[in-house]
Specification:
The protein has 267 residues and is an alpha+beta fold. The chain has one domain: Jelly Rolls (Sandwich). Helices cover 23% and strands 18% of the residues. The termini are far apart. It binds 2-oxoglutaric acid (AKG). The site of 2-oxoglutaric acid (AKG) has 8 residues, from β9.
Length: 267
């Protein structure tokens, strides 16, 4: 049985996503999966974040987000969130068996209250400020692990704009993927907040518009993120930007929009 870096055994029981969950990911661009991280691993991860913040304290009075990035090999307790839980097998139900390229880095996202996000619009990662000859830093999906309670709104929950994964792909089909040098602007649906309890996790499609969210609770929000890529993703970024299901072969039968880059009608 795998362990969490402290030698504690954690559950590796097979977890299956339901067809409804797969459909929700296709339609809305994200899903929350309850009870993926066992309490001992959750406590170890929170202990590690305590140590990180003690080593590099957040300035007194800081309000808003603070992001800590680490190489995965330097953060085995955080790596265990992905490695020693059902997260990989869950991810591979979206992208295909043995398809996950293990990430090199992990991000710990903190939001210090009282914070209210004033941007009112989303972004997608990896294109802003890109020089035309450099590939954007695209990926397949974000895996997020809730270390603090975000089961109600405004507790630092990630803001998402459901369905914009499709809208962004449509825009890149119209303008071409090389137009991704800034945040694309699409018509926006009503914004939602991703809700979950400590131990829950979520997957968010790379192309789904998002932003760091409000935290008017009395607790510093903690979420751990991994940016996951399907094996072979790197050179296919142009196709990935135009076809939201390029990296998700198991989901294609559920979608109406999956198509090779450049085609405008569903196959
Ligand atoms: O604060 C958050 O959870 C959002 C992080 C984010 O938008 C990003 O890292 O791209």
């Amino acid at each position: 049985m795998p362990n969490n870096g402290d030698g504690q055994a954690v559950s590796s029981a097979k977890r299956l996503l339901t067809r409804a969950q797969l459909g929700e990911f296709v339609e809305r661009g994200y899903i929350v999966i309850p009870d993926v991280v066992p309490p001992d691993l959750l406590a170890a991860a929170n202990g590690l974040v305590d140590a990180l913040v003690s080593a590099r304290p957040t300035p007194a009075g800081h309000v808003g987000t603070r992001y800590l990035f680490q190489e995965l090999e330097d953060a085995p307790v955080l790596a265990a969130l992905l490695q020693d839980t059902a997260a990989v097998q869950l991810a591979e139900q979206l992208i295909g068996p043995d398809a996950l390229e293990f990430p090199d880095t992990v991000q710990t996202a903190l939001t210090y209250p009282p914070f209210v996000d004033a941007r009112e619009k989303p972004h997608i990662d990896g294109g802003k400020g890109r020089k035309p000859d450099d590939p954007p830093w695209t990926f397949t999906m974000l895996a997020g692990f809730f270390l603090t309670d975000q089961s109600s709104d405004d507790a630092g929950n990630l803001f998402v704009w459901p369905g914009t994964h499709e809208a962004h792909a449509q825009l890149f089909r119209e303008r071409g993927p090389d137009a991704f040098t800034t945040y694309p602007t699409v018509d926006l649906p009503e914004r939602e907040q991703v809700r979950g309890r400590p131990g829950d996790m979520f997957f968010k499609h790379y192309l789904l518009g998002h932003n760091g969210g409000n935290n008017t609770s009395d607790t510093v929000r903690r979420t751990v993120y991994f940016r996951l890529r399907r094996k072979g993703h790197g050179p296919t970024w142009r196709a990935v930007l135009q076809d939201p299901w390029h990296d998700f072969p198991p989901l294609r039968e559920l979608t109406s929009s999956s198509r090779p880059a450049g085609q405008t009608s569903p196959r």
